[in-house]
Amino acid sequence: MSVLKAKAGLAFTACLTALFLNACNNGKATQICAPEQSPAALRPAATEKTGPITAYWDGSESIAGYIDGANANLHPLADIQRLINDHARDGSTEIVWKRFGEKIAAMPARADPAAAAFYRCGKQADCDNQESRLDDVLAQIADDRSPGLRIIVSDLWLSTSAFKGSTEVAIGGPLRRILSGQNGKDQRSIGVIGIRAPYSGPVYEVPNVGTHRGARERPLFVVLVGTRKEILTAYRSLTRAGSPAFAENRINFTWFGPEPSADWMGDLPDARLTGSAIPAPVFSTPETPVRQVEVSVKDLQAGKAGLTVAVDPKARVLPGAVWEGEPNGFARVWRRASKGCGPGAWEAMPNLSGTWRVNTDDTGKTTATFVLDARAAADLLPGHTYLIGASYTTRTVKPNSDATRWMRDWSVSPDQASAISARNPAFFPALNLAELASILERSTQDQQPEGGRPLATLALVVKTKS
Question: How far, CA to CA in Å, does 7 sit from each of 4, 10, 11?
Fold first, then answer.
């Protein structure tokens, strides 16, 4: 065998070995092989673990009022049960039903939560309809880290007499554990669907009143706990199935989590290039479409070339997400150090400064612009390939956010309850729902991801010349 053939064989073997990590083209890398900490869209997607749906159904006697108040058009409990089953079937997912009162127990196979007798079980020896230990349900969900969507169906009547300790401790503790994950990983999100549901029957444990009668509507809630994808998919299944109970004028939805927006901006079709900055296919087959440019460092640092990308952060926020807060932005940068996808292919460099410029106009609308110019690119050197990953984020959660306003509007505090009862409104609000909203906001703030919650994320490959 000639030396030339041997070298060709070795080159082919090397290319074949690298096939799944780094495409070959005459020995040159064609894929980015993005490093850790770069935007997630550039890296191989992690396989999302799946598991059964677990549905926790409030079995307290007051829930029977939603059955008695239902009519031929509006029967939310029956619809919720059917739609959860449909959602599980459509996703080929097993579903586990549980009933909770003072204790949490498996729901009997023949139980019918769409019938009033399910809640008015006083003559049965094992009847458990006098309390709703939501704190125990949340604690069980927080402690169970196995994959799968959790669903709670309840009136969320947060009477502190049914908790171990204050609402902040009994409810807030599990909520923080759910949102924080384990060691900052496997963070989950929490979605709250509120339904303006017909009702007929007594409302128990009204502070300074006892039992209130006369409510014709009450809030009914579906709480979703899982990944962002699981929550939004379930929300769409429930609200797009045509149930009148989930009509737009009857429901509200808010969710709390670390990723409030569809932040990935793709290959930046609206990016504006100036001067010697031009499109350049540095990597011919990137794993994800990404904007690639070539630019003269001399022109860039002299203000004669650049790139700008305008962002409307609010436009990327997903429905119902809690996102408002103090704006922030950062831009990480790596320099290509070697060919291939092995360790050390990219060398981490100091973050770029001044890349995000924020403007608020006279109407209060805030826009952000990513700018690669003399100020932002002061440390770039000619003759290199750089990968820039940048995110516009919020570092705080605004208290009493717009996304949770409906929860405050649908709430009654203990000191207001007797006055509300005396007025006998058709729609009787939920006890301490505003406090739950505040706890969720604070818990979301406490579990802030490093760098903040992303509203817009972009990536650039920049090849520099002199």
Answer: 5, 5, 6
pLDDT of residue 4: 42
User: How far is residue 255's CA from residue 190's CA, in Å, rounded to a whole number?
Assistant: 5
- Under a CB-based contact definition with an 8 Å cutoff, are residues 125 and 132 in contact? no
Which tokens sit at 271?
């990016």
The 291-296 sheet, strands edge to edge: 278-279, 291-296, 453-465, 385-394, 327-336, 346-352
Asked if 36 and 95 touch (Cβ cutoff 8 Å), the reply is no
CA distances from 430 to 150, 192, 319, 408 (A): 22, 14, 23, 9
**Confidence band of 185 (pLDDT split at 50, 70, 90):** low
Sequence-ordered list of residues with C-beta below 8 angstroms from that of 256, at least 6 positions apart, any chain: 179, 189, 190, 191, 322, 440, 441, 443, 444
Q: Are 69 and 214 in contact (CB under 8 A)?
A: no
**The two three-digit tokens of residue 369, written as one number:** 């612009």
Instruction: Judge whether residue 180 has pLDDT over 50.
Output: yes
Answer whether 137's CB lies under 8 Å from 156's CB.
Answer: no
Determine which of 34-38, 150-154, 421-425 has the lowest per-residue pLDDT on average: 34-38
Asked whether residue 199 carries a pLDDT value surpassing 60, the answer given is: yes
Q: What is the DSSP letter of 49?
A: P
How many angstroms separate the CA atoms of 299 and 373, rounded?
Answer: 9
Q: What value, to the nearest 5°, has the Cα angle with vertex 46 and ends 41 and 47?
A: 135
Nearest to 462 by CA among 376, 374, 380: 380
The pLDDT, as a whole number, for residue 7 is 41
How far is 350 from 106, CA to CA, in rounded Å? 54
Give 146-198 as a DSSP string. Answer: SSS-EEEEE-----GGGSSS-HHHHTHHHHHHHHH-BTTBS--EEEEEEEEEE
- The pLDDT assigned to 10 comes to 41
CA distances from 447 to 137, 145, 190, 242 (A): 21, 17, 13, 36
Question: What is the spatial distance between Cα 112 and Cα 53, in angstroms, rounded to a whole number?
Answer: 18
**What DSSP line would sit under 301-353, residue for residue?**
HTTS-EEEEEE-GGGGBPTTB---S-EEEEEEEEEE-SSSSSTTSEEEEEEES
Burial group, residue 360, by CB count within 10 angstroms (0-12, 13-18, 19+): exposed
**What gap in Å lies between CA 97 and CA 57, rounded to an integer?**
7
**Cβ 341 vs Cβ 21: under 8 Å:** yes
Q: What is the CA radius of gyration of the chain?
A: 28
